[in-house]
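Bench notes, afternoon.
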Amino acid sequence: MKLCEVISKVKSIFSSVTNATFIKKVFVWCFFLLVSFSSIQGQNYDNIIDDLHQELRTHPSKDKTRVDLLNDLSYAYRRSAPAKIDAFAQQALELAKELDYLKGKAMAYKNLGIAKYKLGNHPDTIIALYQKCYELSKIGGDYYNQAACLNNIGLSYRYRLQYTEAIQSFQSAYEIHEKYLPLDRLRLLIIGNMGQAYTNMDDHEDAMLYLEQVITLAEQQNNEAIIAMYMADYAFAQYKGGKAKEAVKTMLKYLPMTKGIGDYQTFARATRLLSDIFIEEGQFDKADHYIKQGLRISEQYNFPVQKCQLMLNRSKVLMDKKKLVAALEAGEYAYGCAEERMVHLQQMKAAKHLLSIYLAT
């Protein structure tokens, strides 16, 4: 079944429910479900990392279990420290090759792709790593990593503005996951990434369709990490749909959650989207407040792509304040780092803004 068909079916089911007693029972059931699972889902990224480090210290043997722990630790850093994703994935790959451990090699290639993606490496390098993961996973009959790596290939295509290929890859990932695996975090990521692809295409109506779906499912599973990851995009789609006040309210409500669970990448991205809104609304002082917060996090945890985007918005704020020399410097930085990392959409936005500065000077 196509992802869009699933969403349509879910919406039609809920729209047909009118019985008040049934609805009350559903809400009661959801409440107890949330309470039951809160201790499991509430653990943040930093706690998980600490636990995995402890497990790794108590398991020095060079075996498959150690490979799995190294891969798990590598992946655990995905929202906070890209360089550490790379370091632990390299260790996992080296040991997996030594042991000829197929699944361990596939997961290590996936994690290396994630690291290179977040560090702003060339898209061809990133896709090649994910492709190795996918091929090894097919050989091993590992449907989870097949879906995961197709999802990540979709992210890489989206990064290159190849949206048709990105959506096809997300759809393939979804179909494998739906056929062979139960609903879990990975399927939510695939749905959410599809929504972000439509956001990047300025198709905010379709973006809202997928983002509403992923947030609804995440709320049902009490998964704060997924809610935090896609709430900023949901709010931005709200804004593009003409709901400016609701969008800002949504972002300000959920922004502290991203830092609270240790998702520093999403915090930086959310501050950029929030500053986008304030800039479009002409509220440059408010924009600058969140840009500074985002830049601090981007620099502290090494998220270069987010820093590129925030520096562009910083340049826009400086231009509004008539500080054209500083605006030019920040704009040129934004253009240069986007060019270096092949972030074409960001590069085009920076070029357009630089033209405005040149005309003003």
